[in-house]
Each structure stands twice: as C-alpha cells, then as structure tokens.
Amino acid sequence: MRVAKIVARQAAILLATFVGLLLVTFVIGRVMPLDPVIAAIGPDVSQEIYDRTREQMGLNDPIWVQFLSYIWAILHLDFGVSFFTKQPVVEDIARVFPATLELASVGILIGALIGIPLGMLAALNRGTWIDGAVRVVTLAGYSAPVFWKGLVLLIVFYAWLGWAGGPGRLSIFYEGLVPQVTGLLLIDAALAGEWEVFRDAFGHLVLPGLSLGYGAAAYIGRMTRSFMLDQLKQEYVSVARVKGMSERQVVLNHVLPNCAVQLVTTVALTYGLLLEGAVLTETVFAWPGLGQYMTKSMFNADMNAVLGGTLVIGTIFILLNLFSDVLYRILDPRTR
Asked: Where, if anywhere, are coiled coils annotated (predicted)?
C-alpha cells in the first residue's frame, strides 16, 4: 500500500509538471508578436485565404479549446510543421537530437570524470595552494563565456596546432558512408566497422566536447568541494579517524557515499543543462544538433520548431529529475 501511494504521488507530480510545461509553451506561442497564419502561408494572400487558414488552424476557437487541442496534438507527437524546413517538427527533432545527445554525453562524461576528483582534491586540501588552484580553475571554467571558450579552442587546437577537427560533425568526404542506426555517429561508425569515419568523427567531437565538459567540470567540481567540506565536519568522520581508519578509507567508505545522493542530482541536472545550453557551442562549432536547429528556427520566426525543441528539453529535465529521485531511494535508505 505504501509503495502504491509513493508511485501514485510521483505520477501525480510528474503529470502536473508536464501539464505546466505544456501550458508555458502554449502561452509563449500565443503571446509572441508573430502571426502564425502569416508564418504558415506568407503575407501576400487575400483576406479570404487568411480567414480560411486561421479557421483551419483553430485560432478562432476559445482559448481553452485551443489548449486542449494543443495537448491532444502533443500527446500524439504532433508538434506541427516547420515553416522553415517544410517538414514535421518531430521528424526534424528526431534527425538533429542525436547530435546534441552525443555532444552533451561526452561533455557530462568529461565534466564528471574531471570535476568530482578536482572537488575532492580541493576539499581534502582546504586552505592550501592546491585548493586555491582548483578554485581558480573551476571559477574560470564556470565564469568564462561559452562562445569564448569555443573560439579559443578552435584557434589554438584546430587553426594553430592542427590537433583536432574543425567545425561540423564530420569531414565532408566521409558523409553518407555510415548507415544511421542510433543516430550517434561514433556508435554507428563502430557498428559499421568504419574506423576512419570513427576517428574523423571523434576528432570533430573533441573540441566542442571539451568546451562543454570544462564548464560542467567547473560546476561539478565546485559543488563536490562544497558537499565534501560539509561531510568532513560531521561527527562520524571524527569517530572513523579515532578508530584508526586511514584518510583514504574515511573518504572512500564514508564521506563519498554520503555525498553520492547530492552528486547524482548535480550531475543529472548538469546533463540537462548541457542538452539545453549547447546552443552557443553548436553555433560556434557548426554542430548540426538541436541547439543550432532552434537557433535557425528562431531567426526565421519558426515558432513551431522553437516550441517543439523547448518541449523536448523540458521533458528531458522532468525525466532527469524523476531519475534522480529514483536514485535517491536506491543510494540513501533514509529516503525510503
């Protein structure tokens, strides 16, 4: 019975959050100073065609009817047609999202593998030059503009040293050689056994991945340091030390597990931010992902595409929060 109540409560929260997200995107679509009819058929049409199109689009219905129609369409994965590409928005998103997913996944992997050890190192050496150096590095990564980091990486490692691939996801002479299975180019190239394509794709992925990963590592590192310092002040740490446990055992067996719940939340939400915040990185590196798609759509006043992308990112945030909550209960018995 208790488990059923917990599941019902979580489902209600999830549903309410999703409806709230739908309401926000619906309101944005209605308050924007853009006429969806003109965006769909162009300005050079007669009033009769304009009125008929407006009626067909349901814009003459009461606002609550429009909202219910909007929910019904979204539940059927109907985000409308992009006025820019002339394709269904859901097909456009399915085409470009794997590139963003691949980039953000590399970014969060770099961020977690670098940020967590850096934060631990700073916390265990609080007040020393090591702590100061880590804090400077993380502050720089967290504060520096995303586009600036991307441009510096391109200038130094691509234009000057030639160590990495340039803008884009793949060199033009490799395009079309790998059949799309997952949409993730590295995985598809490995599955096809096209290792030249794999190396080229990895070379193009390194710089944008580092650009995102540095920012993620900076944030995760700062949060890890804060979590560790809070735990190191607790009485159980002093008791463990009095019992003769080494500092390594204290950190790995006691402090780190007690930070795990907070770290999971931090990493999960940072991953969501990378999926959302890859817009500037994708623009700098000409990365053909969701961020660049939404940017082009915004410049072309293509609100169907912009709202569709916003809804996808919002849904990902909701699912990541749900995932974090589930891990809470697995990692920390006190929350059950």
From this structure: none
Candidate from 125-139, 202-216, 236-250 with smallest mean pLDDT: 236-250
53 lies in some domain:
yes
How many CB atoms within 10 Å of residue 317? Answer: 19
Domain termination site, one of 24, 45, 75: 75
231 and 323 both lie in a single domain = yes
Q: What is the CATH number of the domain that holds 240?
A: 1.10.3720.10
* Residue 240: alpha-carbon gap to chain centroid: 39
Residue 82 domain-assigned?
Answer: no
In sequence order, what are the residues at sequence separation of 6 or more whose Cβ sits closer than 8 angstroms to the Cβ of residue 22? 67, 70, 71, 74, 311
Same domain, 120 and 198: yes
pLDDT score recorded for residue 138:
85
Please check whether residue 37 is in contact with residue 50, taking contact to mean a CB–CB distance below 8 angstroms. Answer: yes
Q: Which contacts (CB < 8 Å, 24+ apart) does range 57-63 have?
A: 63/30
**59 shares a domain with 8:** yes
> Residue 3: its pLDDT value, please?
57
116 is in which domain, residue-wise?
A: 89-335
For 110-145, how does the pLDDT look when each residue is reduced to its tens digit (9 = 90+)?
999 999 999 888 888 888 888 888 888 888 887 777
Crossing angle of helices 63-75/2-31, nearest 10°?
120
> Is 81 within the bounds of a domain?
no
Segment 204-217 shows an average pLDDT of 89
Instruction: Give the Cα-Cα-Cα angle 272, 277, 281 (nearest 5 degrees).
Output: 130
Number of domains in the chain: 2
Identify the top-confidence range among 71-75, 129-133, 231-235, 240-244: 129-133
% of residues, the chain, pLDDT over 70: 85
Q: Are residues 67 and 93 in the same domain?
A: no
Nearest to 114 by CA among 30, 252, 41, 218: 218
For the ranges 36-45, 71-80, 168-177, 286-295, the lowest mean pLDDT is seen at 36-45
